[in-house]
């Protein structure tokens, strides 16, 4: 799988304390990993660790998977991205964005949930204008308008051009699971971070992606240049059953409780991956306070679907089939140095020097 790129997924946002594993990221860089990803929820942010890693690495790309669009204006997000990219030496920043969910958007950021698809379209368009510096940034979108002339305005807003001449070609990725935002990613973004892709993702998402590519600006490049990144959790272990069991409580929490009853993208992702009945039951039990029963419903097969667990031999045997059709990159999630080495060998990144 010589053309497959590898990424390393940091999950700093889940910790009560922030510790950036610089040595591990350096190891990934030496192993030929293409990118290191950060994320955010409602604790540590995704951007600051990348600025830190920009100073301690030299080649590996620095990506967000994802920054939440409710957290910053599009101009502020573009400013941060081009600043980090410049600090990193250029052509290293990848800006992955997502809408999060209404509990965080309205509860943490105090922003209206509104129309997420229209918000993403406006957001990407404004960031492109900021980065390209072709003229003062003006935008008349259904969710965001610049200059601002709404309630509270004194009418003195001006269409401004970035003082900094940053990288105009910072890639923009969209994270999505539903058909509308997935189509939008194919239309306006450089890459895609799908939720609930599953082994049949290429077929499940074929129609919305085709719809988006049909509207795509040729200047962005064709479908062949579009990046699609999926994730695999990797653990070298002699006890696969125990490894699966350890992962069930956290996965159950996300599917059952990370979101409201009507808006839970982790539940929807599990359903798209082939487990709709189990996803619905898990959410029902978690919301009823029956967490242990919900964990018991979680299928082993669903945990294994997004994982490579077992001996190096077992992982090697499953590696090719674990990478779904259509994926151009795999984000490795592991706490084991030896697992990072194993995946680099299986993907051939050490041989190519990527």
Characterise the protein shown here:
- With 354 residues, the chain is α/β, with parallel strands linked by helices.
- The protein folds into two domains: 5-236 and 311-352, Luciferase-like domain (TIM Barrel); 238-305, no CATH class.
- Helices cover 44% and strands 15% of the residues.
- The chain has 16 helices and twelve strands.
- The protein has helices at residues 22-30, 47-56, 74-87, 102-107, 116-132, 179-188, 201-204, 206-214, 240-257, 265-272, 276-287, 291-297, 300-305, 312-322, 337-347, 349-352; strands at 5-9, 35-38, 61-64, 67-68, 93-98, 139-140, 145-146, 172-176, 191-194, 227-236, 307-310, 329-333.
- The strands form two sheets. Strands 1-2-3-5-8-9-10-12 form an eight-stranded parallel β-barrel, surrounded by six helices.
- α2 (47-56) runs parallel beside α3 (74-87) and α11 (276-287) runs antiparallel to α12 (291-297).
- CATH-level-2 architecture of the largest domain: Alpha-Beta Barrel
Number of spatially distinct domains: 2
CATH superfamily of the largest domain: Luciferase-like domain
What is the 3D form? globular
User: Overall mean pLDDT score?
Assistant: 94
- Quickly count the helices: 16
Percent of sequence in beta strands: 5-15%
Biggest sheet strand order reads 1-2-3-5-8-9-10-12
Helical content band: 40-55%
Q: What structural class results from the helix and strand content?
A: alpha/beta
What composes the largest sheet? 8 strands, parallel, barrel
How many beta strands in the DSSP annotation? 12
CATH topology of the largest domain: TIM Barrel
**H/E topology pattern:** EHEHEEHEHHEEEHEHHEHHHHHEHEHH
**Alpha carbon gyration radius:** 20 Å
* Regions with little confidence, pLDDT below 50 for 5+ residues: none
CATH C-level class of the largest domain is Alpha Beta
First and last CA, distance: 13 Å
């Amino acid at each position: 799988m010589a053309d497959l790129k590898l990424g390393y997924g940091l999950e700093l946002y889940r910790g009560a304390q922030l510790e950036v594993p610089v040595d591990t990221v350096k190891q990934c860089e030496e192993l030929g990993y293409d990118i290191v990803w950060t994320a955010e929820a409602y604790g540590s942010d995704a951007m600051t660790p990348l600025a830190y890693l920009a100073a301690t690495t030299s080649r590996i790309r620095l990506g967000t998977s994802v920054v939440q669009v409710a957290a910053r204006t599009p101009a502020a997000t573009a400013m941060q991205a081009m600043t980090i990219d410049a600090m990193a030496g250029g052509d290293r920043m990848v800006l992955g964005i997502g809408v999060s969910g209404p509990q965080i958007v309205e509860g943490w950021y105090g922003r209206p949930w509104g129309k997420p698809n229209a918000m993403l379209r406006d957001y990407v368009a404004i960031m492109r204008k900021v980065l390209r510096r072709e003229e003062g940034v003006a935008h008349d979108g259904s969710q965001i308008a610049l200059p601002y002339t709404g309630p509270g305005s004194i009418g003195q807003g001006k269409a401004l051009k970035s003082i900094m001449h940053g990288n105009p070609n910072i890639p923009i990725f969209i994270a999505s699971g539903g058909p509308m935002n997935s189509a939008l990613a194919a239309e306006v973004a450089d890459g895609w971070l799908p939720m609930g892709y599953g082994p049949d993702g290429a077929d499940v998402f074929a129609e919305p992606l085709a719809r988006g590519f049909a509207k795509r600006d040729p200047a962005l490049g064709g479908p062949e240049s579009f990046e699609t990144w999926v994730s695999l959790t990797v653990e070298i272990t002699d006890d696969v059953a125990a490894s699966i069991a350890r992962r069930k409580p956290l996965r159950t929490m996300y599917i059952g409780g990370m979101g409201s009853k009507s808006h839970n993208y982790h539940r929807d992702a599990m359903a798209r991956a082939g487990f709709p009945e189990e996803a619905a039951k898990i959410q029902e039990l978690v919301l009823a306070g029956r967490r242990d029963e919900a964990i018991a419903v979680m299928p082993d097969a669903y945990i294994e679907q997004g994982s490579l667990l077992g001996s190096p031999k077992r992982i090697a045997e499953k590696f090719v089939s674990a990478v779904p059709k259509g994926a151009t990159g795999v984000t490795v999630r592991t706490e084991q140095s030896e697992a990072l080495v194993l995946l680099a060998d299986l993907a051939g990144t050490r041989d190519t020097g990527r």
